[in-house]
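Deliverable D2.4 — example input (structure tokens):
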């Protein structure tokens, strides 16, 4: 695997976007938030995964689900409509494992 190999334990921020690649592979895109308890900050990482494991993982991804992701990390730069420069992290995941499903809320 070329590039920076990263392993993240994080929480999914929202429902995933499931798609099919032009080559016919299943794909999923979602964002996770990584807590940095040392600095009291959070880092958001966009995760994408393709391949035969997507149908097994994607149905379990939802806001609040805890996941372990392993893959290649890239720094992405773009400009907003107002011309402001932004940067973000993308992870091309080779593996996504569900650590803990979201707990159902209990009505009082």
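Example output (designed residues):
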């Amino acid at each position: 695997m070329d590039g920076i190999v990263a392993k993240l334990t994080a929480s999914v921020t929202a429902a995933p976007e499931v798609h099919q690649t032009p080559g016919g592979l299943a794909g999923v895109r979602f964002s996770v938030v990584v807590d940095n308890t040392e600095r009291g900050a959070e880092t958001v990482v966009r995760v994408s995964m393709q391949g035969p494991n997507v149908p097994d993982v994607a149905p379990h991804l939802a806001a609040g689900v805890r996941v372990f992701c392993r893959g290649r990390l890239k720094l992405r730069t773009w400009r907003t409509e107002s011309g402001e420069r932004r940067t973000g992290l993308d992870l091309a995941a080779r593996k996504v494992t569900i650590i803990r499903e979201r707990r159902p809320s209990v009505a009082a």
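The chain has a mean pLDDT of 89.
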